Amino acid sequence: RLGTPNGQVLNKNPCASIFRRVVFDYDPALFVRNRHVRQHVSKALHTYSEAVKLSCPGAHNSNLPRLRLLMVTFGSARAFINRATGNVAANCHKLPASHFDISDLTADYITTIFTEAASLLRHHAPRLKILYTVSPIRHKAYGFHAARISKANLLIATDRLCLQDVDARYFPAYEIMNDELRDYRFYAADMIHPSDVAANHIYRRFLQSQCDDATTALADECTRFTRRLRHRPLNPSSTEASGFALSTEAEAARLRESHPYLSEAINRYTTTNIH
Fold first, then answer.
1. Alpha carbon of 142 to those of 79, 111, 138, 173, 178: distances in Å?
2. 8 Å CB contact between 186 and 131
3. CB 94 within 8 A of CB 37
4. How far apart are CA 271 and CA 275, in angstroms?
5. pLDDT tens digits for 180-190?
6. pTM as predicted
7. 78 close to 27: Cβ distance less than 8 angstroms
8. How are beta strands 69-74 and 168-171 bridged, if at all?
9. How many CA atoms lie within 13 Å of 126's alpha carbon, on the beta-carbon side?
10. For position 11, what pLDDT does the model report?
């Protein structure tokens, strides 16, 4: 498993650029001083700061040959183009709207940049398989008609990418939400995001279609463990709370022993969540 220090990147063009950057090198010109948020930020990345700068250059290069699966979720085809550079931004970082032009990336363009990105990654990770999906989250701010057109471009692009690549697959999260569930009761109160019931339904469909029985069992085990970590006792100093913390630590130790490759993630979460 290779983590990303670049945060959540919602646009296709900077996402493909990040793949190139992981393979090659960090470019200091990507980072600019933003007087509006008083940070050094990158409009090509979601996150900012020295942590990103240190993790971008060749930091992942040595790990690339181990990469077996890349999961790409497309959210929107809408692009915010920096007027000064002509580049598509991954995150506007609260810069004034006057800094950007708005456009939609075409299905042809998305297909082209991700075909190139996949080819580049496979040069270093020849056994890489890619799983594409389109997010069912509605982009209400664009207007529902414009949002549908945006999703249509993404659906066409993912279809083309999978047809031309034998090592690419598609998981129909968008279709499950809109065709299988297809009811407003499966949306959250904002009428934009899937409800918890819908999200869990899509997750179970994902496990059924993409994971074997052993992986599904492990996923359920990890879900139960993360629920323990989210538990907050009413009285942290009570005997019951201490006993719960000890049993959670024991469960973490058991998971580390039975699944050593999860140790890093377990350590990261238990450090701040076990009281």
1. 12, 23, 9, 21, 18
2. no
3. yes
4. 9
5. 998 999 999 99
6. 0.77
7. no
8. unpaired
9. 0
10. 52
